[in-house]
Structures are given as C-alpha cells and as structure tokens.
C-alpha cells in the first residue's frame, strides 16, 4: 500500500481546509485509515481515523467538533475536512493506514503505512 497526501497550505484562523489522502497498491488489505499531525517541536499525535470498510469515524478530543473524516472507497481516498481552524492546528499532517486488524487504532505504532506529510499553517 502507498499513500499520497495533498491539500495542505496556508489558512487564516477560523477558516477551512480539506486534505486528501489517496491510497494505491493492495488497498484491499487496509483496515483503517487515519490522520496524524506533528507540530514543530512536538510529538506526532492522532487526529482521527475511520474503518476503511465502514463504520463511523473517531477523533481526538480537541478536533472532534471541528474536523470531519470522509471516506470514498470508489476513489480509494480519505479526506480530512478542517473547519474553524486555530493557530494550534498548524502542523505537518500525515495520513496512515493499518493492514492488521485492530479496534479503533489511534497509536502511531498501530499504523504500518504512512504518507509523506503535508504542511498546514494557520495564521492568527
């Protein structure tokens, strides 16, 4: 499985941005897709995830009322819609996939495939 993230950029506080992650290769082996982010000087953290074959997305507490994950299996993509953005959302965002069955994985070590990251900057 290969992942390609896109859609990062500069946005003002309060604005919106949508990221997309395209999966290719042996996508039938994917169980979950997720988004993580890493702010400057901080550890990579979980943002949200979704079961590749159905089910509701799940989110980290600080974003659950502002971010939404969309899944489009026909296009093998997962999108992250970010609304009401804050300067604290500034980070490199990574999409990730797990190919081993787990229940609502949210730890970095639970995901075995990663995209290259896309930078999101929120100005105040």
Q: What labels describe this entry?
A:
4-stranded antiparallel beta sheet; 7-stranded mixed beta sheet; 0% helix; 124 residues
* H-E string: EEEEEEEEEEE
Q: Strand portion, in percent?
A: over 45%
Largest sheet: 7 strands, mixed
- In helices, the fraction of residues equals under 10%
Give the beta-strand count. Answer: 11
Average pLDDT works out at 95
Describe this structure in words.
- By secondary structure, this protein is mainly β.
- It is 0% helix and 49% strand.
- It is built from no helices and 11 strands.
- Strands 2, 4, 5, 6, 9, 10 and 11 form a 7-stranded mixed beta sheet that branches. The protein has a 4-stranded antiparallel beta sheet with strand order 1-3-8-7, with no helix packed on it.
- The chain is globular.
- It starts with a strand and ends with a strand.
- The mean pLDDT is 95.
